[in-house]
Amino acid sequence: MSEPWSIGGVDLHLDLGPGRRRAGLTDALREAVRAGRLAPGTRLPASRTLAADLGLSRGTVTAAYGQLAAEGYLLARPGAGTVVAPRATAARRPVPLERPWRPAVRYDLRPGLPDLSAFPRRDWLASARTALATADHAALGWGDPRGHPDLRAELAGYLGRVRDVRTEPDAVMVCAGFAHGLALVCAVLRDRGVRAIALEDPYLPAYREVAEAAGLRTVPVPVDADGIRVDRLAAADVGAVVVTPAHQFPLGVALAPARRAQLADWARRTGGLLVEDDYDGEYRYDREPLGALQGLAPASTVYVGTASKTLAPGLRLGWLAAPPQLVAPLVRQRRHTDRHTGILEQLTFAELIRSGRYDRHVRRSRITYRRRRDELVAALPTGLPVTGIAAGLHLLVGLPAGVSESAVVNAARRRSLGLEGLSAHYGRSGRRPPQLVIGYGTPPDHAFRPALRALVDLLHEYPGR
Hints:
- The protein has helices spanning 21-34, 47-54, 58-71, 121-134, 149-163, 178-191, 205-213, 230-234, 257-270, 324-335, 343-354, 357-379, 405-414, 445-459, and strands spanning 2-7, 10-15, 74-77, 81-84, 107-108, 172-175, 196-201, 217-224, 227-228, 240-243, 273-277, 301-306, 318-321, 386-387, 394-398, 417-418, 435-439.
- By secondary structure, it is of the alpha/beta class.
- The strands form five sheets. Strands 6-13-12-11-10-7-8-9 form an eight-stranded mixed sheet, sandwiched between helices. A three-stranded antiparallel sheet has the order 14-15-17, with no helix packed on it. Strands 1-2 form a two-stranded antiparallel ribbon.
- A hairpin with a 2-residue loop joins strand 8 (217-224) and strand 9 (227-228).
- The longest helix is centred in the C-terminal third of the chain and has 23 residues, at 357-379.
- The chain is globular.
- The chain starts with a strand and ends in a 6-residue tail after the last helix.
């Protein structure tokens, strides 16, 4: 017999099994304690109460409690009832990951994160209160796979105003970040007969992993000072290409105007799809903001943006602006996976944009990150080449000839300083000048200068050769 019962209002399922009721209750309680379902210090119901709940005699419950107290699983305290004994549960071993994404360090200058301590908590809370107070009850039900209409409308307006994206709310889909959006696009491409997708080289390794998990072959296409080599792309047998035109990751270059036109022409001529990753387009310092590539070829481009750099990746908020012919296939694909993104986050983000708080936060962040970039560039040892500084949250620092990237990264790790080498981002083999990808957005504000000092001290140990 299986019976659910409650401890202080918390339900616990007990399987008493057939036959001997006392032994069944004792075994079920013992297993619940061992498994941690009854935590140390949990107060058990009085024997009379539990007996009535389970349809047992009070003597059966009292005997079971006595047996477990004798074994050390329970403690019977006069006037305080029966509780689970301390340390009665076995220590739980953490399940090891194949490899941690970002091993903990004291000073973190790896790219990929904004300053999480700068998340606008007050603005987010104020927006959440307004959103919850005004939301229709129906919003909490099963929603449109594209996302809530309010957020899609706000995003369409924001993207047109800030990034020159030409789209309508019906063509916007809210997703859980760039990797999620790319996975949806790759699945649609696969179903439409595409077998290969091009990636800028160097690129973020996650791009390749996502595309290959969807069954697509990846083709690296080299990047130079003007961006992706469109002439090399034309020679590749691919049906789509992922690009970061505003601020190439990780080289930091902007796609030159002539290359933009060539890329748009390639898409129109071949029927290929451009997947534009605008991961940090809001952050620019020494140049005018570049509009999205999507504006040149809206019928051939899926524009992808996220709040991961402007707010925090933990929100899992991203968006696609898709060509009309891909909207229905993306919706069908979304229905087969996670259905839609969390509605409370969507409503809160919509209000954050609508109220102007999001724009103000981005402007404040832009000032902070520009100051950090300037401090970093000024502090670096003389003679080290620095590139990719005009925008974004990272830059590249060249190392002296003969100095190994891995040697510097490993030396930094021994000092609890997180650094990343450029070579990890290349898809093709070959020798390249050693460079570090420095993410100056990652540390909290109070930790930025100590991290900068740790970096400069390390680099001074590798003078030019």
